[in-house]
Design brief:
This protein is α/β, with parallel strands linked by helices. It is built from twelve helices and six strands. The longest helix has 22 residues, at about 255-275. The termini are far apart. The mean pLDDT is about 90.
């Protein structure tokens, strides 16, 4: 019975994708993309936006089209979104969007987005890079992907990802497992992550907030996102946290001090780039 159920689900899923593919050219493209950063509150923000009465979400949050699925083509991407005619719901114009936090780190993503959806609104939440790295590491451990201790994983990072960014640039079809999963420290050097985006998109098309402000004042940050996207004012009944990852032991004071010293100049460069300062320690 279980085998039959599993087989029937596979058949049903394939049939669903086939039907969606028939109407792919009639499907909408995203009006907004949450493009980063991983472990920075993007799941919560996406779920709040998906609940907005004037938003029709895609069939899943992280489509990963512009990074690891780009070879599948624009029609495959469109199949994840509602039909254009659905965006007029009860006489109201609705919008759609997605959230794939790895987009911020992939060097080819900004140009790919610019080509397909040049006017899309881009949103990022940036978390204290030390806390982001620790949360990312713990997430990889929970998934069974990371088997090293934190200290060893950080020590191995450079050798694990050496040359991977160049490979991503040189081969548009290349997917780097290591760059995606084992880049704990490097993905917190946000000014380098954002440079390609700022080079390609006008500044008014990007909204950058700190994750800490989002955690402390979710109503305020959410309202700014809603206005930025052009939606009517609305808030969920409660700002419930999604995908928080649970509790884990803090890092040693010595390691935190080492990471603070490493990130300090990078954070200063970021603050100058953004014209604002986040309260990170």
């Amino acid at each position: 019975m279980r085998k039959k159920t599993k087989l029937s689900k596979i058949i049903q899923n394939r049939a669903t994708w086939f039907l969606r593919s028939l109407n792919s050219n009639k499907r909408a493209l995203p009006d907004f993309i949450i493009f980063g950063a991983a472990k920075g509150g993007t799941t919560s923000l996406f779920n709040y936006l998906a609940a907005h009465p004037d938003v029709l979400p895609p069939i899943k949050k992280e489509i990963h089209y512009f990074d690891r699925n780009y070879r599948k083509g624009d029609n495959w991407y469109r199949m994840h979104f509602p039909l254009k005619q659905q965006l007029n719901k009860n006489g109201r114009l609705c919008i759609t969007g997605e959230a794939s936090p790895y987009y911020i780190s992939h060097p080819l993503v900004p140009a790919r987005i610019k080509k397909l959806v040049p006017d899309v609104k881009l949103i990022a939440l940036l978390r204290n890079p030390i806390d982001r790295a620790l949360s990312n590491y713990q997430h990889m451990v929970r998934l069974g992907i990371e088997t090293q201790s934190l200290e060893k994983a950080l020590e191995l990072e450079e050798s694990r990802i050496a040359g991977e960014r160049d490979k991503l640039i040189q081969d548009p079809c290349y997917y780097s497992y290591n760059h995606h999963h084992f880049s704990y420290i490097n993905r917190g050097i946000y000014h380098k992550e954002l440079e390609p985006w700022f080079d390609i998109f006008p500044r008014e098309q990007l909204l950058i907030n700190s994750s800490e402000q989002f955690y402390e004042e979710p109503d305020k940050v959410f309202s700014s996102v809603v206005r930025f996207i052009g939606l009517n004012d609305w808030s969920p009944e409660q700002f419930k946290a999604f995908n928080s990852g649970g509790d884990y032991a803090p890092i040693s004071p010595e390691l935190r001090k080492k990471l603070q010293d490493f990130y300090r100049p990078h954070n200063e460069t970021l603050f100058k780039m953004l014209g604002t300062r986040f309260h990170w320690d």
